[in-house]
Specification:
Blueprint: E1 11-17, E2 21-28, E3 33-40, H1 47-64, E4 71-77, E5 81-82, E6 87-89, E7 101-102, H2 104-111, E8 117-120, H3 122-133, E9 142-147, E10 151-157, E11 160-161, H4 194-197, H5 199-212, H6 229-237, H7 241-265, E12 269-273, H8 281-294, E13 304-307, H9 315-327
Helix pairs in contact: 1-2, 3-9, 5-7, 6-7, 7-8
Length: 331
C-alpha cells in the first residue's frame, strides 16, 4: 500500500492587486485558500511603502500556515503588469506606480526570503486560474473574457498564455468594433469593444436608448447618471422591453467579436468571467446566436461558451496563485 507523501512547500501566495484593495491568499495545490488578508492599495507615497505594508500583513497569515518555509512561490495579478519583466508599468489608477516602472516581483521576492515571484495582468491571471482550477481545467486552447468595469481577456493557445513580444498581448477589449461614430474609450481610441460590452458599456447603451426613443421603461424612473448594468439587468428580468434590447445589443456585439477572435486562435471554449455574467441568458443567448451568424463556417460548432466556475469572491486570488504554481510546479 502506497502512502501519499506530503508536498514539500505546499503553498503559494496569490495577490489580487486592485485599484482600491490588495487581497492576499495562501493557497494549496487543490485551490483551497488557507488564509487571507488585505490592505488598501492606495495611500502610499512610494512602492516601498506599499510593499512594507503588504509584507507586514502577509507575515501574519504566512505564520498561520507554518512559516515562509512552507511557501514555494508567489503570483500577482495587477493592472499594467508585465509578465516578462515582473513590473507594473505606469498604472494610471495606482498613485505609487502612476508615473514610473515598479519592479514589484523583485521587491516582494527580496522581502520574502527570495521565494520566486511572478506577475501578470488581471485578465491573464483569470485565464491561468480557470485553466488550473476552473471551467477550463484540462483545456489547452481557450479565451477568457472578463466582463467588468472594462473588458479584459486572456488568450491560451497550446496550453500557454499569449504575451507577445512585450508582455501586453491579448487586449481584446480594445479591438475596434465600430469605426463610424464609435464611442470614445479610456484608452484614447474610439469604437472599442470595451465601450459597448463592459458593465459601463451596458449602462451607456441604456442611456442612449432612453435618449433616442420614447419607449416606456422602468429605467425612466431613474436619474440617467445612476443607471448601472445591475439596474438594466433587474429591469430586463421584470420584462422591461427596452432593458431586454440593451442586452440583445450587448450580446450581439460580443458574439460578433468572438466570431472574429475564433479566426486567429480557433478556441475550444470562450470562458466569461465578471459581474456582467450574472445577467445569464439575457446576455448569453444573443451572444451565441450572433456568434453563429458571424463566425467562419470552418469554426462553427467547435467552441463552447462557458461561464467561469470560480467563486467570484476568491477567483482573482486563485488566478494570481496559479501563476505561482506555474513558476514552481509540484513535482
Amino acid at each position: 500500500m502506497s502512502i501519499e507523501q506530503p508536498i514539500a512547500k505546499p503553498y503559494v501566495i496569490g495577490l489580487d492587486l486592485g485599484g482600491t484593495n490588495s487581497v492576499f491568499g495562501i493557497v494549496d495545490s487543490r485551490g483551497e485558500i488557507k488564509a487571507t488578508t488585505a490592505i488598501k492599495t492606495q495611500g502610499y507615497e512610494t512602492a516601498e511603502d506599499y510593499v512594507n505594508a503588504a509584507v507586514d500583513a502577509l507575515h501574519i497569515i504566512i505564520e498561520q500556515c507554518g512559516g515562509i518555509g512552507n511557501v514555494r512561490a508567489m503570483g500577482i495579478g495587477a493592472p499594467n503588469a508585465n509578465f516578462y519583466k515582473g513590473t507594473i508599468d505606469h498604472a494610471p489608477n495606482i498613485l505609487w506606480a502612476h508615473d514610473c516602472v515598479v519592479p514589484l516581483a523583485e521587491m516582494f521576492s527580496e522581502r520574502l526570503e527570495g521565494i520566486p515571484v511572478a506577475m501578470t495582468n488581471d485578465a491573464n491571471a483569470a485565464a491561468i486560474g480557470e485553466m488550473t482550477y476552473g471551467a477550463a481545467r484540462g483545456m489547452k486552447n481557450f479565451i477568457e473574457i472578463t466582463l467588468g468595469t472594462g473588458v479584459g481577456s486572456g488568450i491560451v493557445i497550446n496550453g500557454q498564455v499569449v504575451y507577445g513580444c512585450d508582455g501586453y498581448a491579448g487586449e481584446l477589449g480594445h479591438v475596434t468594433m465600430r469605426r463610424e461614430n464609435g464611442r470614445t474609450c479610456g484608452c484614447g481610441r474610439t469604437g472599442c469593444l470595451e465601450t459597448y460590452c463592459s458593465a459601463t458599456g451596458v449602462a451607456r447603451t441604456a442611456r442612449e436608448f432612453l435618449e433616442t426613443t420614447d419607449e416606456p421603461s422602468l429605467l425612466r424612473d431613474m436619474n440617467p447618471d445612476d443607471i448601472t448594468s445591475l439596474e438594466v439587468s433587474l429591469a430586463a428580468q421584470k420584462g422591461d422591453a427596452l432593458a431586454k434590447r440593451v442586452y440583445e445589443f450587448t450580446g450581439e456585439m460580443l458574439g460578433e467579436a468572438c466570431a472574429d477572435f475564433a479566426a486567429f486562435s480557433s478556441p475550444e471554449a470562450f470562458v466569461f468571467f465578471g459581474g456582467l455574467t450574472k445577467a445569464g441568458e439575457l446576455l448569453m443567448e444573443p451572444l451565441k446566436r450572433s456568434y453563429n451568424e458571424h463566425v467562419m463556417p470552418i469554426f462553427k460548432g467547435k467552441a463552447t461558451f462557458l461561464v467561469s466556475s470560480l467563486d467570484g469572491s476568491s477567483a482573482a486570488v486563485l488566478g494570481a496563485s496559479a501563476i505561482g504554481w506555474e513558476l514552481a510546479p509540484v513535482a
